[in-house]
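Job type: complex structure
Entries:
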Amino acid sequence: MSYVIDRRLNGKNKSTVNRQRFLRRYREHIKKAVEEAVSRRSITDMEHGEQISIPGRDIDEPILHHGRGGKQTIIHPGNKEFTSGERIPRPQGGGGGKGAGKASNSGEGMDDFVFQITQEEFLDFMFEDLELPNLVKRHLNGAETFKTVRAGISSEGNPSRINIIRTLRSAHARRIALSGSSRAKLREAKLELERLKLQEPDNIGDIRAIEEEILKLRARIERVPFLDTFDVKYNLLTKQPNPSSKAVMFCLMDVSGSMTQATKDVAKRFFILLYLFLKRNYDKIEVVFIRHHTSAKEVDEEEFFYSRETGGTIVSSALKLMQEIMAERYPINEWNIYGAQASDGDNWNDDSPVCRDILINQIMPFMQYYTYVEITPREHQALWYEYEAVRDAFSDAFAQQQLVSAADIYPVFRELFQRRLAA
Amino acid sequence: MTPRERKGPISTGSEWTFDLIRTYDHEIARIAERYALDTYPNQIEVITAEQMMDAYASVGMPLGYHHWSYGKHFLHTEKNYTRGQMGLAYEIVINSDPCIAYLMEENTMCMQALVIAHACYGHNSFFKGNYLFRTWTDASSIIDYLVFAKQYIMKCEERHGIDAVENLLDSCHALMNYGVDRYKRPYPISAEEERQRQKIREEHIQRQINDLWRTIPRGEHKSDERDAKRFPSEPQENILYFIEKHAPLLEPWQREVVRIVRKIAQYFYPQRQTQVMNEGWATFWHYTLVNDLYDEGLVTDGFMLEFLQSHSSVIFQPAFDSPYYSGINPYTLGFSMFMDIRRMCENPTEEDKRWFPDIAGTDWLSTIKFAMQSFKDESFILQYLSPKVIRDLKLFSILDDDHKDELLVSAIHDESGYRTIRELLAAQYNLGNREPNVQIWNVDRRGDRSLTLRHTQHDRKPLGESTDEVLKHLHRLWGFDVHLETASGDQVINVQHMPPRSEHAEGSEYPRLDLAFSPI
């Protein structure tokens, strides 16, 4: 009367849809949590999901139930010292019975509802602000770039990949194999017919029988199709990951007094994006953080984003330092070098031409790509116009963009990605 | 079958195989037959932990429609499980014919055998025997109906958008506990018929509704007396049913969705009323059956130790002052009571003869079967809770009156308290007491079409804090104003309005707020 069934191989993600529904419903909460996580995490730390917590009160499903108060009688187990009619002070934490009141009356408490989202979901939520198109998102999310290479012959594939020679060869072989015995009989019958015609030309009955036999055999041979579906052979292509190598990413940022924390956060998004992009294309990435006001300094990430300095701004100091580090640690034949500079556009006026010269002569020739973002709603200043000259000189490796909010980051990347995807 | 030819245990290791599961099931079935346990055929499905979490998330339905709340449930389970804060249940069993039981692949052989005895013979025979399940659910058609429900709701999502369906389901879920008929037997639900009848029903209902809300003037002599009558003439406790039949603004597909939620609530209603009995019965049988296996020498001592360890943790009852305490463990209470009935039948004491003259010394098997078949938690406790169980569990009652400063221990496990405790504990399992008594009271058919509910207060217990939210959902379903009166005796002591009215506007012209909550 019993049947034992092994269901272990059935799909295990029956709840995926419901989970997606849940994420959809609480996307505002999740987005907020993701935003907080982005500002908290290191930019090289985007490889895992995030723990999201939503206040229990927002997530409750309301039902009609009794609240505290009135006369309530509850039976409890495990009496130790109470006697009938005894009065005991009400335990702290309000009405309800002892202990049980908390758990059984009001259902779950007001604890936060905590759950994990995956890295993919995390990045999805993060990119949402940035208005990235899907192709780019996929690219960042981990769909690696592949090179398709030939890998022999297969009997399944796409019609456009048919290998005609192999196909016809196997069709030929099949025809020979399938019609072999008929053909042998045909040969014999032909010999017999000839012999009969020569030796017994009067034996009309036998000759006719053999002629019929020959016709039948011919028909049978002809019924073997010229080309059958399983003859068709295809060129097999497999995907090989693109060969990747090492890259270094320079992050340059102005930390002078005029840069606010909000500006820095936009810059951080920008750096994260660049980092993720490089991560997908290169095996090994190093990140160098250089911050500057009037003088430049190589720092760690924490200090880069969160320490404050005051004073003027001399951008060329950072460029000089970058150039030195490049020369010293990152030989051009081993490293792909990327640069990303964020600033609010302020610079000491006489310094801007210097910057232009350093870039054109000492940095840009070795760069894969250099991006400059100016995070300000204001008018451009001298630095921007000097950089325009750089852009003209290296139009395929230099991008500059003015950002007002995070949503403006993408256009810079569009150029970068188009270039990468075309390559 | 005759006693086994093979001497020695069925298995010695803790690894299970499909053959071993079949052998154990076979042996347990043989012993269960000795006790004449009447069961549906069993369908034992072995699943992984992930699949178990999926099964959890759909709250025991083998397949359910999509809704975010199941996703929430799933995330919650997943988090607790992956962090090791919670073990998954060893089994889930579904009241269907054949009776589906899920076994987790992580279980040891001993656990699998325990689960087979517990679910496939304990719960299964309860589902088939208990009067509530026999009257209120139709095991053979539930799977079909769930398939119908899932497909119907999916179709609605395609046609009307996910949000519209989700909002509607949210509202229905809020009132799900008020979507059951407590006294009359519902029609058995069958997917085939359901599909066929659904179209006809749609048109029919819509026509009725239109009739109810007819605005064409009638002859004057009639209208006066008709208006004086309340509608509905009797208070209605099945709120969702009332909504389905009479809500003025719902589209036909929305009525069908309300109906689906209502039907599913009805399906689960017996389970909510028989938790103690159901678990107690299943625990009693896994205990009895596995012990018989042991007596026949079919399982090893090691198996038995593991079994007893799991068994005693299932029926562990922390005391009220323990940090692990979260109410009375239904497994403990049910198991102790069934064991106690057997004891009273087999070895009655003087006390038992005094308290239970009808059952002391009778045939234990027919007595517990009768108990299983004819009661629900409330009446079962009222009928069978013996002084011995009260003493063993050291039950006592606490009276918490918000007019007094102190709690009163009104009864403990002594001669004068047994009866009180038994009555109070039975009342505690009475769904009618546990859920506030809220019924449809009146519809203002000729006026603003507002719906009035009446909450009849019991022991001055107020409504919980999510009542407002529930009223919002009800308002969404009804489409016009909703009032909730709280009555103590015959006196209305409080009225809540949805949309809320401000104090000073009370009674005077107030702005209509219908549009604040769009009717879906």
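Summary: Residues 73 and 388 of chain B are 39 Å apart (CA to CA). Chain B is about 50% helix and 10% strand.
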